[in-house]
Amino acid sequence: MTNAAKPSQGSSLWKDAWHRLARNKPALLSLGVLVVVVIACFIVPFLPFVKNPTAINLANPAASPSAAYWFGTDQLGRDLFARVLYGGQVSLLVGFVATGVAVIIGVVYGAVSGYVGGKTDAVMMRFVDILFALPFLVLVILFALVVDEPSSDFTSWIIETTGWERDRVAPITTLIPLFIAIGAIGWLTIARIVRAQVLSVKNLDFVEAAVSLGLSRFRILFRHILPNVIGPIIIYTTLAVPGIMLLESVLSFLGLGVKPPNSSWGILIKEGADRMEVTPYLLLFPSLFFAATLFALNFLGDGLRDALDPKSSKD
Fold first, then answer.
1. Does 70 fall in a domain?
2. Structural domain includes residue 11
3. Model pLDDT, residue 57
4. pLDDT tens-digit profile of 140-151?
5. How many domains does the chain have?
6. Is the residue at 235 inside a domain?
7. Is residue 280 part of a domain?
8. For residue 51, what is the DSSP state?
9. What is the dihedral of CA 248, 291, 300, 41, to 10 degrees?
10. Which residues contact 209 (CB under 8 A, 6 or more apart)?
11. What does pLDDT average to over the chain?
12. Cα Rg, the chain, nearest whole Å
């Protein structure tokens, strides 16, 4: 008596996507680079050999890279290695947190617009079109200036309430205007993407089945439709982080971003650009970290786009 053949085990979309991503060497290498950068910026600064990034040493200004100062020092004698790592914390936080804010707003707005449809959809999308027609950078600058004073008041309130030192609180609270400004303006593209995806999904059979079961619109949208459009959202998020990090660098370059003595990669690149003819390493090291992170995010985004492409799910 012959044994019946065992049925083949099914595979989920996410498992297939991971297998495709694992075969993408540039994407895996980029993921490794991102992990190294995150560890370097958020864990290494707490090690005892890393110096205080704001400590001024006028006896050793503009020193070349050495065993004592791996990346050299700036014009005030501050350790550039420590400043690059701490600046990476700021740039990465701005990139990921502001992107998260933009994605949350854009996903909810686009999903509601696409699912409700009709005149509501038309009005919501015309509002998006109006915002698209306005200069993005100018809006971010104006929005950042508007929320700057409330952010300063919030910093003072935290210091009075908790008794913490300003140097401990200010590096985080001074980023609030950037988070709000970039996140509040940067959701337009993802809203259009999500709306288009919801329009293509909301008339499928599984949605009609959920409607026939009497489920609420809220549950159908957020429990049944959005999980089926999560792929494009993840891809956009990965590709949006480099753009927002670049925007933060531009704002910091213009003096409208992170406030001194705190630093970001944008501020360090500006300072290095001002002195590149005399001390080129001040520009070289933050630029290398910044460029490596941007390239890694872009390659990882491309890899995720290919891995989550439904057309290649049977490859």
1. no
2. no
3. 81
4. 777 767 777 777
5. 1
6. yes
7. yes
8. P
9. -70
10. none
11. 80
12. 24
3 state DSSP class of 61: coil
**Residues 255-294: pLDDT tens digits?**
666 766 778 888 888 888 888 888 888 889 998 998 898 8
Is residue 250 a contact partner of residue 136, using CB atoms and an 8 Å limit?
no
Domain of 208, CATH number, reads: 1.10.3720.10
Token digits of residue 144? 């950042």
Token duo for residue 155: 């910093």
Whether residue 147 contacts residue 184, with contact meaning beta carbons closer than 8 Å, is answered with no
Distances in Å between the Cα of 91 and the Cα atoms of 43, 99, 164, 208, 289 are: 15, 12, 23, 44, 11
pLDDT class for 123, splitting at 50, 70, 90?
Answer: very high
Name the pTM for this structure. Answer: 0.76
The mean pLDDT value for 114-137 works out to 86
Structure tokens at 44: 């290494």
Q: What distance lies between CA 86 and its chain's CA centroid?
A: 17
Which one is predicted more confidently, 306 or 201?
A: 201
Domain of 86? 79-308
Contact indicator for 73, 51 with CB cutoff of 8 Å: no
- Rounded Cα distance between 156 and 260, Å, is 17
Cβ distance 178 to 249 under 8 Å? no
Q: What is the pLDDT of residue 73?
A: 87
